[in-house]
Amino acid sequence: MWGTEMTAAETTAPRTLAEKVWDEHVVRAGEADASGQRDPDLIYIDLHLVHEVTSPQAFEGLRLAGRSVRRPDLTIATEDHNVPTVDIDKPIADPVSRTQVETLRRNCEEFGIRLHPMGDAEQGIVHIIGPQLGLTQPGMTIVCGDSHTSTHGAFGAIAMGIGTSEVEHVLATQTLSLRPFKTMAITVDGELPVGVTSKDLILAIIAKIGTGGGQGHVLEYRGSAIEKLSMEARMTICNMSIEAGARAGMIAPDQTTYDYLRGRPHAPSGDDWDAAVAHWDSLRSDPGARYDTEVHIDASTLTPFVTWGTNPGQGAPLGDTVPDPAKISDETRAQAAEKALAYMDLTPGTPLRDVSVDAVFLGSCTNGRIEDLRAAASVLEGRRVADGVRMLVVPGSMRVKKQAEDEGLDAVFRAAGAEWRQAGCSMCLGMNPDQLAPGERCASTSNRNFEGRQGKGGRTHLVSPAVAAATAVRGRLAAPADLAH
Ligand SMILES: CC(C)[C@H](C(=O)O)[C@@H](O)C(=O)O
Ligand code: SF4
């Protein structure tokens, strides 16, 4: 059973992937009181990722208590949210952003934490650099003061976002007090049709289970369609688990995982590699393991998916029309849809393909990896971004940027009329200069379409990189198949 002290018989009971990883990290199991209510378990943390937004008070707390960082060697920091993506050799103009970044630099220096600052070859969005450096590995517990930490679950790790007081706790002790999560299996079988990507799949999953559907659960994505996905695609899916309200998302490690990790700077090597793989091979849900909730999806029924509303669950196939709130039977959902459509300035019944955009954003920890840039570049090659549309291409890390440039993708984007930027969170959220103007509409490969997310009054449609590129060319929401050859 999950997280409890086990008898010999119980250790052989079938367990899920999440339960196995959890059990391996219990420092002290919570004790049950007379009513059966259990205290939280104390869980060991293998990797702690840090960025400028959620760390200042945590470091301040350590300072006030006279504490040091327990395991600086398991802690790594990067600058991502507040950094500009042009003129990065100049001081940051915005005083709030500048203070955040300078504070992180001072804290990392004082507490002896490795930091990848703006311009560094390994700098980038926190959820892109962990996997890229081989720091993210199967079977680990990974935390960061950032909700999209769920990304790292694509490697078979328990990876979750934590609040700033928990950041302080992990800095000080390398542990966290946690109550076990519920488990949900999302089994995706069948073939994804051509042109349908992991982004479409996760948007469809969230539309199906709802933004609260995963609450209290760790989601395990499994099934033949998941097994066929690349690591990049798996990360896109796990990244958005949080948008379904889940605590974390996971995918069991397999050969695809090992091929991605092998040779990366922090991946084990030599005999250690073989020993690690032998262990990682055990990190699969046992046959007969029980989940609290089960969801099944047939991948072959999916099409490109876009959001029309102001939460990631308000999405529909690109071929649909803007929904009519009057036809939504659930009162709460109908009201939410009505409010969203007013904000989005959309009329029920309008074909989604008729919705025109002012901007296209390709990037973020959801879709700012090399495969995402390749997918978009293959659509933009030999084509032009539509007149009046601004397209921003922002690699998720400096390493992704370099790889893209080595492959000539930057030239494709520039020739098409898109802007090629430095690495960072950029237009995913309005914490840096890359923002929408009020009323502007954007097709964005990021993960949140909340009101004002990309700038005050901005309107966001979440899409895949392929749909983003086709939309840039057509000036209206589109899939590559809609473009004339
Ligand atoms: C700033 C940070 C705390 C936030 C998060 O936790 O996710 C951000 O990364 C986001 O995507 O909204
Ligand atoms: S890219 Fe967006 S979602 Fe990801 S960490 Fe940055 S702000 Fe959060």
Strand-helix topology:
Layout: H1 8-11, H2 17-23, E1 26-28, E2 41-44, E3 47-50, H3 56-65, E4 75-78, H4 95-111, E5 114-116, H5 126-132, E6 141-144, E7 158-161, H6 164-173, E8 175-178, E9 182-189, H7 198-209, E10 217-222, H8 224-227, H9 231-239, E11 248-250, H10 255-261, H11 270-280, E12 293-298, E13 305-307, E14 315-317, H12 331-344, E15 359-362, H13 364-367, H14 370-380, E16 390-393, H15 398-406, H16 409-416, E17 419-420, E18 441-444, E19 459-462, H17 465-474
Parallel strand pairs: 3-4, 3-6, 4-5, 6-7, 9-10, 9-12, 10-11, 15-16, 15-18, 16-17, 18-19
Antiparallel strand pairs: 1-2, 2-8, 13-14
Helix pairs in contact: 3-6, 7-9, 14-16, 14-17
Characterise this structure:
- It catalyses: (2R,3S)-3-isopropylmalate = (2S)-2-isopropylmalate; (2S,3R)-3-hydroxybutane-1,2,3-tricarboxylate = 2-methyl-cis-aconitate + H2O.
- With 485 residues, the chain is an alpha/beta fold.
- Among the domains are: 158 residues, Aconitase, domain 3 (2-Layer Sandwich), CATH 3.30.499.10; 178 residues, Aconitase, domain 3.
- The chain has 17 helices and 19 strands.
- Helix 3 packs across helix 6 and helix 7 runs parallel beside helix 9.
- The site of 3-isopropylmalic acid (IPM) has 8 residues, from loops.
Under the CATH scheme, which architecture of one domain would be assigned? 2-Layer Sandwich
Task: Name the beta content range.
Answer: 15-25%
List cofactors, ions and other ligands.
Answer: 3-isopropylmalic acid, iron/sulfur cluster
Strand order of the largest sheet: 5-4-3-6-7
Given the structure, what is the number of helices? 17
Largest sheet: 5 strands, parallel
Shape: globular
Instruction: Just give the CATH class of one domain.
Output: Alpha Beta
- The CATH topology of one domain corresponds to Aconitase, domain 3
Number of strands: 19
Query: Mean of the pLDDT scores?
Result: 96
Task: Report how far the terminal alpha carbons are from each other.
Answer: 57 Å
CATH superfamily caption of one domain:
Aconitase, domain 3
Helical content stands at 25-40%
Low-confidence stretches: none
Please state the structural category.
alpha/beta
